[in-house]
Structure formats: structure tokens, C-alpha cells
Design goal:
Helix content is 17%, strand content 33%. The chain is of the alpha+beta class and 296 residues long.
């Protein structure tokens, strides 16, 4: 008598394990839903009194105001790159980003204990991030980061070593002097915060999960990586050729001091940690503050 072969899924426990895996996985996250935000604003150059004052102007009571752009946003605005809606336009043109990893450098100790090699963490190391942007027909996406570099490391011209006080939309055709040189600004002037928010297609959609007892409102997950004191360190080459036309894009690499993660679910931490107090969430998803008691 031939032996009856059973199906691989005839085992009830195996089927339950597969269903448990599917429910645990839920809806997998997709890589093509994200949003980049840059800490830039439309602020014009600040008019200040110019010194030395012209004697004829001083005698007539008319003083000349000189425009100064000592802030990154003021510099980019004077270049015509941060008009109304331009900042959001650059953020939407970002077509590729990455969520960075992190590593820990270690030090090794050998010989303190016989036959044991110990390693200890010494420093957290953050990896640089790269953002790719589509280049618009007016090339403002490309000029945005070029002017960021110009502000960060301005060029000093003439034998006296004078730099431009603000940016200019038409560029700097007179910067071809042989004795021109560069100097850096203070890091506080050119560093800005960046953020990358990862979300899914159903972000913003509110629906209700039907359960046996009470309906529960469904809130899609989103996670944000916030980068502190970021600035561009590299603008990669853009290849041009006479072959079939492709969409032009520029890739910019950023360095930063550190990053932290914010989630739109759960109870956020307080602005200032309070010693002796802890927050817990009860069954009704309401945050409660309790006093930590010292052990007896």
C-alpha cells in the first residue's frame, strides 16, 4: 500500500508560526517615502553704517548704509536662492538620502587578567550622510551648495584682502586675481541643522481598528533623524556627455556633530530630566509621573 504523502502545511503549529510571523512583520517599510528639511530661512542682508563715512555725505546728514550678510540664510537670500517657497522646493528635489549608521571605537587591554583580552568603548563615531538633488533648469539647486561653500570659505581679493559683504545672484566674475586667498568663518556661522523623516504611504490617514471592545484610533508610524550642526563637505562631480539625455542630479556629502531620533509614537521625554521622577504609561495610554523611592 502506497504511503500517503502529507502537505508541508498540514502541520497546524507550522501554519500558526507563519501567521504569527506575518502579523509580527506587518506592512514592510518602503524606501521611497521620505522628506528632507534644512534649517534655512528667507532673511535679507542687514543694513549697517559704513565706515569711514564720506565727509560730503556726513555734512549733508545722509549716511550710506552698507548691506552685510554675516549669516548663512542672509547670504543665500542675497544670492537670490531663498525667495518665497524656494526652501521647500529644494527639499522636494531631494531624490535620494540615507539613514546613517553609527559605530563605536574601542581600546584593547591585554594582560590585566591572564589569558583575557578586554575591549572597552571609547568614542561614538557618526558616519557622514549623502543627499542627492535633482538639478532644476535654473541651476539654483547647484548654486545653493556652491554658495554655501562660498560663505563658509570666502575669497579675499585686492592687495588689502577684502571679502564680499554679501552674495550676488550674478556670481563673482572679478575673483580671478592671482593674489586672492581664502579664509574660514567661525563654525557657528555656517553650520545648520538637518532632518530626514521616514514615513509610509498612509501618513496623515486616520482610520479606526475594530476590536472586540472599544475602537482604537490608528496612527501611522514616522521616524525622524535630526542632525546637529551639519554642513556640506563635498559636492560630487556631475558628468556631462553627448549621449542620451538623463536627469541631472548633484550629490552633496554632509558632516555633522551628532544626531538623535524622534518618533511620533509614545510619550516623549521631558525637556529637562528631573532627578527622582519617572514617567510611566498606564493601560489607557496616559502618562503618569511617579517619585522614585530610594532602596531600604
Amino acid at each position: 500500500m502506497a504511503r500517503q504523502q502529507k502537505s508541508y502545511f498540514s502541520n497546524d503549529k507550522l501554519v500558526k508560526d507563519i501567521e504569527t510571523f506575518r502579523s509580527a512583520l506587518g506592512a514592510p517599510a518602503l524606501s521611497n517615502f521620505f522628506k528632507v528639511q534644512m534649517d534655512l530661512a528667507n532673511i535679507g542682508p542687514e543694513p549697517v553704517d559704513s565706515f569711514p563715512v564720506d565727509l560730503d555725505s556726513a555734512s549733508s546728514g545722509v549716511y550710506q548704509k552698507e548691506k552685510m550678510a554675516n549669516d548663512l540664510s542672509r547670504w543665500l537670500t542675497s544670492c537670490g536662492l531663498l525667495d518665497n517657497g524656494e526652501k521647500e522646493r529644494y527639499e522636494l528635489l531631494c531624490n535620494e538620502a540615507m539613514l546613517p549608521g553609527v559605530s563605536m571605537s574601542v581600546v584593547q587591554e591585554v594582560g590585566s587578567r591572564q589569558g583575557i583580552r578586554e575591549r572597552f568603548a571609547t568614542q561614538r563615531q557618526y558616519t557622514d550622510i549623502a543627499l542627492s538633488f535633482f538639478v532644476s533648469q535654473d541651476y539654483k539647486t547647484l548654486k545653493l551648495f556652491q554658495e554655501w561653500f562660498n560663505f563658509m570659505n570666502p575669497l579675499y581679493v585686492t592687495q588689502e584682502g577684502i571679502k564680499h559683504n554679501q552674495g550676488y545672484p550674478g556670481g563673482y566674475p572679478n575673483n580671478d586675481e592671482r593674489f586672492a586667498f581664502h579664509r574660514f568663518r567661525y563654525p557657528h556661522d555656517y553650520k545648520r541643522d538637518l532632518s530626514i523623516t521616514k514615513f509610509e504611504r498612509n501618513l496623515g490617514a486616520t482610520k479606526t481598528k475594530t476590536q472586540k471592545e472599544d475602537p482604537v484610533e490608528f496612527k501611522p508610524d514616522a521616524i525622524s533623524y535630526n542632525f546637529i550642526n551639519a554642513f556640506p563637505i563635498s559636492i560630487q562631480d556631475i558628468p556631462l556627455n553627448y549621449a542620451g539625455g538623463n536627469l541631472l542630479q548633484v550629490t552633496v556629502e554632509f558632516a555633522y556633530d551628532r544626531y538623535y531620533i524622534v518618533n511620533n509614537q509614545g510619550t516623549p521625554a521631558p525637556a529637562v530630566p528631573q532627578k527622582g521622577l519617572s514617567q510611566i504609561t498606564n493601560a489607557n495610554n496616559v502618562s503618569e509621573t511617579t517619585v522614585d523611592k530610594a532602596p531600604n
